[in-house]
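Q: Hi! First time asking for a complex rather than a single chain. Here are the components, and I think there are six in total. Is that enough to go on?
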Amino acid sequence: MKHKSQQERKIETKKKIVDAAMSLFSSQGYYQTNSKEIAREAGVSTGSFYTYFADKKDALKYILNTYTQEVISDSAVSDDDLILSIDRKAILRDTIVKSFNLHNFSVGFYQQVRTLSIADEEIGLIFEEYKRTILMRISKLLEHLASELPPDSREAASIIIYAAIEGTVHTVKFSRTDQTEAVLIDELVRFVDSYLAALNKE
Amino acid sequence: MKHKSQQERKIETKKKIVDAAMSLFSSQGYYQTNSKEIAREAGVSTGSFYTYFADKKDALKYILNTYTQEVISDSAVSDDDLILSIDRKAILRDTIVKSFNLHNFSVGFYQQVRTLSIADEEIGLIFEEYKRTILMRISKLLEHLASELPPDSREAASIIIYAAIEGTVHTVKFSRTDQTEAVLIDELVRFVDSYLAALNKE
Amino acid sequence: MKHKSQQERKIETKKKIVDAAMSLFSSQGYYQTNSKEIAREAGVSTGSFYTYFADKKDALKYILNTYTQEVISDSAVSDDDLILSIDRKAILRDTIVKSFNLHNFSVGFYQQVRTLSIADEEIGLIFEEYKRTILMRISKLLEHLASELPPDSREAASIIIYAAIEGTVHTVKFSRTDQTEAVLIDELVRFVDSYLAALNKE
Amino acid sequence: MKHKSQQERKIETKKKIVDAAMSLFSSQGYYQTNSKEIAREAGVSTGSFYTYFADKKDALKYILNTYTQEVISDSAVSDDDLILSIDRKAILRDTIVKSFNLHNFSVGFYQQVRTLSIADEEIGLIFEEYKRTILMRISKLLEHLASELPPDSREAASIIIYAAIEGTVHTVKFSRTDQTEAVLIDELVRFVDSYLAALNKE
DNA sequence: TATGAATGAGCATTCATTCAT
DNA sequence: TATGAATGAATGCTCATTCAT
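A: Yes, that's all I need. Here is the structure of the assembled complex.
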C-alpha cells in the first residue's frame, strides 16, 4: 500500500509545479521566469509543465485562483465572531492580523498579479473579483462596527483600510524598515479604531 | 527664428522617447513593451532610442529618476505652509490632495517600478530612495501635527498613511469603483484626522 | 535496430552544427557567418544552435579545442619512428607531409583563429597552447636530428620551420600558384635538410 | 604663412583617419572596429570619415594599397646592391632584416588582410598582387644567389622563404616567446644560406 | 567641408511551445 | 504520462551609412 495511485502522483506533480512557479513568480517576477526554470525548480521536465498547464499564463491563472479562493475562505469572519466580540479593538486587531498573515503569504505574488492586472484583462477580472470579496468583508465588518456610517463612506473606508493594510505589508516585506510587524499592527489598529470612534461620535 | 538648434532638437527627441516609453511602460508594462514600439510611438527610429539610452532599462531608470525628482520637489510642503495653517484638517487635506495628484500622475508607472524593484536591485535602490523621501515628508508633517507621538509610532504612522494614500489612488485608477476621488479624499482626511485627534487626546 | 537513441541523435545534431560552423567560418570568416546561416547549413533551427552552444564564440572555441586536440594527437611522432628511421630526409619528409596534411585540413579555419587570437584573449590562449605543442614536437624532432644545436637555436629553428610549413600551405591553398604541393614539399624537405646538415657540420 | 591651405588640411585629415583606421584594424580587427570608433580615434566626426572614403572597405583598400606600395618601393633591392655584394650571407641578412622591418610594421594589419582576402575577392586581388611582387623580388634575389636553380624550384623556394619570414615575424609579434628578434634573424639567415649552399654544391 | 543625430536593416540570442520517443 | 531536444517567431541591440544643418 506504499505505492501512490497514478491519480495521487498527478496531484503531487501538479503541486510541485505550482509551488515552483509561485515561488519563482514571486521572487523574480512573471516575465523574468521561464518555463524551463519552473520545470527545473519543480524537478520535472519542461514537457511536463505543459501536460498540466496549457501555457505559462494558464499556470498563473490557476495559482491566482487557488490562492484567492484560499484567502477568501480562510479570512471569513463568521457572524458569530462579530456578535460575540464586544470589544471593537479586539475585532479589529484580529482582522488586521489575519489580513497581515494572508498578505504576508506571498506579497511578491500579489504584487506581480496587481501589476499584470493592468494590462491583462483576464488576470484583471480574477484579481478584481478577489479584491471585491475582500472589500465586501471589510465593509461588512464596518457595518457591524459603525452602523451609522452611510454606505458610500463605508465603501470608501473599506478601500482605505484595505489599502493601508496591503501597502503596509508590502513595505514591511520589501523596504529596509526597522519597524517591526508588531508596531505596525498596533498602529494600524489605532488608526482604524480612532477612525471608527470618530465616526460613531458624529 | 523658426529653426531650432540641434541642441534643442536633441532635447525634443529625447522627450518624445521618454514620453512614449513612460506611456507604454505605464499602460502595457515594462516587459510587454519593446524598443521598436517605443520608437514607433515616439515617431523616431529604433536606433534613435539607443542614441539616447544605453538599453531599455537605462530608459526606465532615467524616467524613474526624473519622475521621482519632480515628485520630490513638487510635493515639498514648505515650513511656512505648516506654520500659517491653523486647521489640522486643512493641512491634511492639502497634503493628501497633493499626494493624490502626484500618485495619480502615472500610477501605472509607479506600479511597474514597485514590481520591478523586487527583483532588480538597481531599480530597487532608486525606488527606495524615493519612498524614503516621501515617508520623511509625512513624518515631518506628523511631527508638526502630533508632536507628542514617539518617533517609532510616527514612522509607523507615516508608513500607514503613505500606504493608504498610494493604495487608494491605485484602486481609484484601476478598479471598477463607483467611488469618486472626492469621496475618497474626504474619507482619507477623516481617517488620518481621527487618528491624530485620538493621539492628541491620549 | 534502425532507430537511433536520443543520445545518438544529439551527437549527430551537434556534429552537423560543428561541421557547418567549421565550414562556414573557414570559407567566409567568423564575422561574416551568422548563426542563422550555420543552422540552415546544418539543417537545424536557429534555436538548436543555442541548445548546443552558449553563443557563437563558444562554438568557435569548441571547434578549436576539438580540432587542436585531434591535430595534436594525430601528429605525434612516436619515439619508435625516430629510432627506426635512419634517414634524416625520410623523417623530415614524413613530418612535413604530416604537417602539410594537418594544416591543409582547414587552413581557412586556422587562418581565422590566427587572426581572432590577436584581439580575443580566450581564443588567443587556446591557440597559443596549440602552437606551443606543435613547436615542442618540432623541437623534439630537431633534438634528435641535430643534437648539438643549442636550445636557443633549436627553439628558433622550430619557429622558422613551423612558419615555413604553415605559410607554404597557406600559399598553396589561397594563392594562384602553379606550384604543386609535391614540388613545395620537396623543396621544404631540402630546405630543412640543408639547414640541419649545415648545423651538424659546424 | 602659418595657415595651411585647404588642400593641406584635407591631406592631414585623411592621414589622421588612415592612421586611426590602420591602428584599430591592426589591434582589434576589421570587423571589431566601427566607423564611429575610427572617427573618434582620428579626432574627426563620423561624417568626415565618409567624406574621405566611400565606405569602411574603401578605407581598408586605400590603406592596403598605400601600405603595399610603400613596402614594395622600400624593399626594392637595387641591382647595384646585388652586384656589389660579394658575401651571400650579407645579402641575405640585409634582405631578411629589411623584410622583418617591413612586416614588423603592422603584422596585425597584414594578418587582417590575409584573412579578409579569403572571402573578399577585391581585397584578395590587391593582396595577391602585393604578394606576387614580393615573391618576385625574392625570386630575383635567388636567381642571383643560386643561378643554377631551375625556375620551378626557385619559385617554390621563394614561397618557402617568404613564408618563413612572415610566419616568424608573426610569432615574434603575437606569441609569448623568449626568442629575441636577433636570434631569429640569425637563424633565418642560416636557414636560407644553408639551403643555397647546398644547392650550389649539387 | 564638417558635424553628429537619425536611420533601419541586420544579427545574436531567448523562450514559449511542440512532438517524437 | 514523461521527457527534453527541436522549433522559429520575437526582441534587444549594433552599426554602416545618410543627410539636414
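A: Residues 34-36, 46-47, 50, 55-56 of chain A lie near DNA strand E (CB under 10 Å from a C1'). Let me know if you'd like any chain examined more closely.
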